[in-house]
Amino acid sequence: MYFFYYFGHVKRTGLLLLLFLISSICFGQNNYTKQFSFINDNDLYVSTQRDRYYTNGILLKYNYLSSKESEKATKKIYSIEVGQKLYSPFKANVDFLSEHDRPFAGYLFGGFGVSNFYNNNSILKLNGRIGVIGPSAFGEELMNFVHDIYGFDPAIGWKYQIKDAFTLNLSASYTKNIQSFSSEYFDFNWKNKINVGLIFTDISTGFSSRIGLKSLKKITNSIGFNSNLNNKNTKLNSNKEMFFYVNPMLRLNAYDATIQGSILNDNEIITYDINPFVLTTEIGFRFSLNRFNFKYAVVHHTKKLKSIRVPNSNVYGSIEIHYLFN
Known about the structure:
With 326 residues, the protein is mainly β. It has one domain (33-325): Outer membrane protein (Lipocalin, Beta Barrel). It has helices at 2-27, 139-150, 257-260, and strands spanning 34-42, 53-65, 73-88, 105-118, 122-133, 165-177, 189-197, 200-212, 242-256, 277-289, 292-302, 313-325. It has a 12-stranded antiparallel beta barrel with strand order 1-2-3-4-5-6-7-8-9-10-11-12. The termini are far apart.
């Protein structure tokens, strides 16, 4: 009899402990001050038949929360990043110069940024990147490495790629929530961004709207804006998030070294003029799960360069995995 009583007590205790652990995992109130991110863009995420133009991008990023407090800013987050972007014509194997409807180009960079999140539900981000475009960016090596893994033919045409050049770029973006157009499950945020430098120079404006499957968090404390790092003095970041979003941006282009070649070189073999206006629309889904949060998006953009062979639009996919820790 004692055995059954003891066994029943252990079962109840174990069940209660299990429920406590599950509730702690699912609903625990934890503050995380650091985040590591893996971001990958690739047109194969939307079609296995296409591998062209902006063909691959990889970004590794480390974000950490500043310990300094400010009366105006809710919080400040610093970021350190390293990444690589690859560009190619309509296919990876292009034998003849006449077939190149855009240049091959590799871009390798490292960067540092700071994001300020303000009490009026706005965000100001500043970022600087230093790197290289051309053969020293190892674009050909990476593409052929991936092709070798999947048994594809080596990419032909990289010998005509954009030449080596140093790159330095500065960027700033400002996002402001428009409260009058927002609600508990929908928001409207005005976005603006400017790039100036030796790789991209442009200015863009648009909006970002979230459609929540749960009640939306403020943009200054949401995975949608990489603002979900907190300490004991800021709001908790363990609440679950799950939402769709749409982000159309109209960009005025002044310079794109991956298409026009670097202004530091005058001996490029293949270059094109850029289109002054490009409309980019990103539609995606984001959700959080304990220490992780995830994103999948489809990005559509209109024609970027003046080449009669390039279609009027292109599309690629993007995935992100973020891990929170202390």
